[in-house]
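Following up on my earlier message about pyridoxal-5'-phosphate. Here are the inputs again, as you asked, copied directly from the submission form:
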Amino acid sequence: MQKLKYERPLIKKMNAGPMSKFGNSACMQPVTQIDGVPVKSLIAQFGSPVFVLSEKQIRRTYRTAARAFKTRYPKVQFAWSYKTNYLNAVCQVFHQEGSWAEVVSGFEYYKALGNGVPGNHIIFNGPNKKREDVLLAIENDSLIHIDHFDELYNLLAICNTINKKPRVAIRVNMDIGVYPVWDRFGFNYENGQAWNAITKIVESGKMQLEGLHCHIGTFMLSASAYGIAAAKLCDLAQRCKTQLYNPIQYLDLGGGFPSANTLKGAYLPSADTIPSVDDFAEVITTTILGYDFKQDELPLLILETGRALIDDAGYLLGSVVANKRLNDGRQGIIMDFGVNSLFTSFWYDHKISPAQECSQHTENMVVYGPLCMNIDVIRESINLPLLNPGDHVVVHKVGAYNLTQWMQFITMRPAVVLIDEQGQPHQIRQPETLEYLEMMEQVPAHLQQKVQV
Ligand SMILES: *Cc1c(COP(=O)(O)O)cnc(C)c1O
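Thanks, got it. Here's what our run produced:
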């Protein structure tokens, strides 16, 4: 019989106690299945770790957001922010729901075309658009959002070589009472730069100024900030009409609504503190409706919501590698996924749940990833029951940005699975392999001879 390893005893405060407003922290609800599919079978079929997305949840969240805006304003259009999650299967769910595409790079632009999005339903943002991509976007009647004066001058130069008026908007940055202001993108409202750019575009007669755009930040906790942003865009739009006789067709309020994740260092769980999508919709739509646009000139309201639409549909399933008692007495637990796959653990305290029945006794733990790096910490401090090597866990609300910002570092990127509305799992991205990795490498001839070392 194997001898049990000695573990020194530890005296700790019990976490048991009455239910508080935030639930009983000692009560551990295991998450054994996702949309009816057992975690165990997902890991058996697709490996560990594995990202799992719920199509049902994506559609539910999207419809809730769309309803919040469409019940308050007659002309609303969402455009899926590709960089938030550009797996084609995910983009297609949003496109099926009626979303346009919002892209910030040439390859995302091509992805949107490949997903069948018509050119005139693609919004092209970002400070670094390549000339050939811009030419294609013009040809396809896409909406080009100009970021800075050099881009404006480049576009004007392109206009002299073609027989077509590009459809454009400018990105506007502004003081919305939340600091620091994101002033590195777009033209400033307060100092007159935005108005200056608008005037240049309209007076050139070479482009069609159709919209005004802003993206005031990300994970914005203030709904009123969007009221200020909408008001400033409306002010520019009205001046465009009265002073330049150029009515504005659409106002694009960008993204930035928070998801229900808890930011690191936050005192309360996010779900209890963030404004709802209804709060944002109410502020934005009442502000626009408060301006005296004629009924038939009411601008289309575009939203480029990213993380708030996909975060809660994403799960990372993983396994315990080992337990480790730290010198300071705390329990450390090593998982088979690290910060390389879970990029958002740098700013969120992600919820982690055991995936099987477990003890109700919890202990404060540090959750480590498997990388040989000190920074590979998923949670600095979390109450979990003791888990055994091989046990599974579920990390919640990881659908946004992880599948675009993940790194192939020490470990390969894992598989991604989408569970459809009927509860059927589909692998939508294979786990990476050494072969895939080395496909991009080239060894010069003089280094190809293998030597004995
Ligand atoms: C990233 C980005 C978005 C999406 O932002 P979220 O904070 O995820 O909603 C929208 N618009 C632009 C221009 C972006 O860069």
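One observation from looking it over: The chain has twelve helices and 20 strands. Hope that helps, and feel free to reply on this thread.
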